[in-house]
Amino acid sequence: MGVTRLDQRGFVTLGGIPQWVEVHGADGANPVLIALHGGPGMPETPLLRHFNAGIERVFTVVYWEQRGAGRTYDRKTPPETMTVDRFVADLDELVDHVRARFAKPKVALLGHSWGSALGTLYAARHPEKVSAYIGTGQIGDLAASEADGYAFVLEEAKRRGNAKAVEELTRLGPPPYTEQQMMVQRRWLGRFVGTLGSVPVWTALRIVLFASGTSIFSLPKVVGGMFFSLRTLWPQVSAINLERDAPELKMPVWFLNGRNDHQVSAAKTEQYFNKLIAPSKKLVWFEKSGHFAPFEEPEAFNAAMAEIARSL
Questions:
Q1: What is the pLDDT of residues 275-302, one digit of tens each?
Q2: Residue 261 CA to its chain's centroid (Å)
């Protein structure tokens, strides 16, 4: 049987609106993996395809730009449809579309950051459709994670003797935050550890704007979608507690996590992993990475994904 390379791009109607989906892979017979980006509202398709294209040799990878994000973003999207439950329902429609397209009973999920919460909630609700769950920048108890992140960045400001940061962060106080308050903490965290960890922002921006299938004209939708998604979803996302809402998954689980993640606390990720009930589970640490392990240590990340593909 010949190997057929897959490279497809276009809109798929999910939840009543057209949403951008790409499918790339070396062989349609490979296991199917749906990549769930973070943010909310941060499309990562170009970055994943630049740094992690190797996984397309072992998986058929479905890249989805979610409701309110990237090329799916539309200013006419009703804000009231931006709910966690609606995203889970959109994902269910995508899973069914992909299962039918490739005649697969189950798909694997790879969730990053907010996408890890979406993927975990989906896997908990629809275990019969999920062959494996893989999380990176994995959320657990997000309120506890945000508290850890605030404590870290304030202590780092003091250690560096950055009086302006200490003053702003002290005035801000510990979470919970609105999305505007959260961005203050994230701005200082980015100053201290890098917005995208060890990946320069300008490198990432160049990849996003000049990747195949994108252009500089994509920038308004990317930026507009990020602000829209954060504004409408952050109050719900910030309250997510997977220790409470997804204490058990009924498929194999992998967490591929940056040891130095302070955007989603690595300590709270490990706490959730230890509590999580699953038929098998494995926590892999990427010692040089923060929140963006797939992009900071791509070779090691791709090797871990290849091992998972072999297990499937």
A1: 999 999 999 999 999 999 999 999 999 9
A2: 14
